[in-house]
């Protein structure tokens, strides 16, 4: 079995589990909708100022709702000591980690793709002219959130205060990725084309994703086994 | 021996700080625009530098732990982070006071302050993780990994916030506001930096010793329970 | 042929040694009953053998390789306290997943085969969360055995098993021993374990108190070992 096949087997297992129970995606989506509602009290939807910060609001929703999915990622392995069964199998820590990342990525993208049109409707935002570029930004930004979140999910899996620790640890870490994604999304949702001076944010996102993916894959074995 | 080193460093740092206080209040004149409060810079900047470099030293200690599995390195990393957090808090408070008195604002989201606040949050996260884990070996291992991530992140955060804030410029609180400091006025900053670094070393050594004693007590307790 | 070599192994909890200088061997084809009171260090040792944690000091060599090496793990079957199967997946899906992870050529076929061997073929598509306790335990056994491991590590396997599950497990273990596989089993169920065991090791407060062959006296009087080598 190749490296990828075993990672995909684990990703498939997570996704199949989620499709059957639907508990995480439902919770995440509900939470996202609640946040959108709360934001509508804090910021006047439809006003010009809100349009200017649309990108920021969108990614805050993604980041908060995403934490629910990421928290569950390794927590679901504690039932029946399945985590031990996985670690003692020939699958390496890296395969385990990447498999879970892939599954989380898919789930996060699903939640985000559902939230985006709802956001556009609720906040009377303009649908970006270059929609596909916004999708690329979502792909890049979400991978950053997924990689950091999945690794820290592994780190905090056995802690009492897991639900509390995960957000506390990952949000400061995610600031560069969120900043890049927010910048690009705000520009795109304002309907403006991405200029050369925005290229730097793409570079930031790609750099962030690369650096932390490598770091996470290198250190995950230490986190899981010791 | 260790105690002697700590004593020497503490005394030296005390002497330098005292001497600097003398220089600050009696020799250096009030700054043109800011008045007396300007002197806070002599603590603010060295504090900032001391705490910011803490990340990197803590990362080295963490890597040393992962390579050697010696819990002393973990104690060093934790102590560095604790002391750095203390200095980071001092930096934020002195900076805030300075900003209020000199420019009328308690806080602003310029590049430096924002990055620094993230730095502070990462330290707090590290210490929270430490408290959440009971088993010393697991704690050392996970905190070491976190330390490495935090160090990588702070480098990226610093650069990216600089880019971010240049797109949305806000008031920039710079120590060189008003066009540079006269050469004579800069020296106390570096002397204070030296003093604070020595003070940090003393505090870190104390804290590491405390940690070693804590571990010994815990293991003695375990022995006691086992019999 | 020595299957397992444990050499000078220490494990610390901070500065407190949970395992102190443990050294012993297990020959291929042997069945070792690992005995000791709760908290003695049996589970800690088994977890290290299973590749779930690392020794602070000392060496562990399993089937000639490091415990964490991929090739080694592919030849080890582990049955811990938890059943190690997923509630939201069916029995078949669970076994197929682990067959894939263990690099088996034809995972579906092997999964079905083991469902039959453990008497679960009729519920192969049932989700584990609907299973009774006995069925879960049989599925756990299937998961541990399906890749034909050369070494089986069992942590208190007979605990809370119903009689049907005990019979299945004992049958499988006897069969495994007949095929020349090695078994290390920690247990409190002295009778069932000592019937199967060829060797015995007793861990007391993190140290190896006894290591030898399983004798008649031990079988006839399961408490014999504790009285002679354990602490009062």
Task: Give a description of the structure.
The complex is a heterotrimer of chains A (226), B (227) and C (232). The model of chain A has no long low-confidence stretch (mean pLDDT 91). Chain A is globular. Chain A has helices at residues 3-21, 23-42, 48-52, 54-75, 82-87, 93-122, 131-156, 162-189, 199-224. In chain A, α2 crosses α6. Chain A has one domain (3-224). Chain A has 226 residues and is mostly helical. By secondary structure, chain B is mainly α. Chain B is built from six helices and no strands. The longest helix of chain B has 44 residues, at 183-226. Chain B starts with a helix and ends with a helix. The relative contact order of chain B is 0.17. Chain C has one domain (30-55, 65-229): Rossmann fold (3-Layer(aba) Sandwich), CATH 3.40.50. Chain C has nine helices and ten strands. In chain C, the strands form two sheets. Chain C has a six-stranded mixed beta sheet, with helices on both faces. A four-stranded antiparallel beta sheet of chain C has the order 2-1-4-5, with helices on one face. In chain C, α3 (91-101) crosses α4.
Shape of chain C: globular
Tell me the series of helices and strands of chain C, N- to C-terminal: EEEHEEHEHHHEHEHEEHH
Q: What assembly state would you assign to the polypeptide chains in this entry?
A: heterotrimer
Mean pLDDT of chain C: 89
Give the secondary structure arrangement, pairings included:
The complex is a heterotrimer of chains A (226), B (227) and C (232).
Chain A: H1 3-21, H2 23-42, H3 48-52, H4 54-75, H5 82-87, H6 93-122, H7 131-156, H8 162-189, H9 199-224
Helix pairs in contact in A: 1-6, 2-4, 2-6, 4-6, 4-7, 4-8, 6-7, 6-9, 7-8, 7-9, 8-9
Chain B: H1 2-27, H2 41-68, H3 71-103, H4 111-132, H5 136-167, H6 183-226
Chain C: E1 2-13, E2 16-27, E3 31-35, H1 42-49, E4 57-62, E5 65-66, H2 70-73, E6 76-79, H3 91-101, H4 107-117, H5 133-145, E7 151-155, H6 163-178, E8 182-186, H7 190-196, E9 199-204, E10 207-213, H8 216-220, H9 224-229
Parallel strand pairs in C: 3-8, 3-9, 6-7, 7-8
Antiparallel strand pairs in C: 1-2, 1-4, 4-5, 9-10
Helix pairs in contact in C: 3-4, 4-5, 5-6
